[in-house]
Amino acid sequence: MRTRFVLLVGLALIPGCARSKYAPVSGKVTMDGKPLADVVVMFQPSGDTLEPVPGSTRRTNENGEYTLTVVGEGINGAVIGPHTV
Prior knowledge:
It is built from 1 helix and 10 strands. It is of the alpha+beta class and about 80 residues long.
C-alpha cells in the first residue's frame, strides 16, 4: 500500500515539474514617460544551451502593458534564464 501511495504522489508531481522551468513575466513599455501601445515585446533565450528552448512574446495594450506568453506552449511567462529582449 505504501509503495502505491508514493508512486501516485510522484506521478501527480510530474506535470508540476515540467512547468517549473517557466516564470511569469509582465511589464510596461514607455517612451518619454508615455505608454507605448501596440508594440511587440520579445524575449529570446540566450546563453550556452544544447537544447533549444522557445522564446516568449506579447503585444502591448493601450497602456503599454504586457504579459509574456511562451511561443507554441500556451503558457504565460518565459523560460528561466538569460534572454535577449
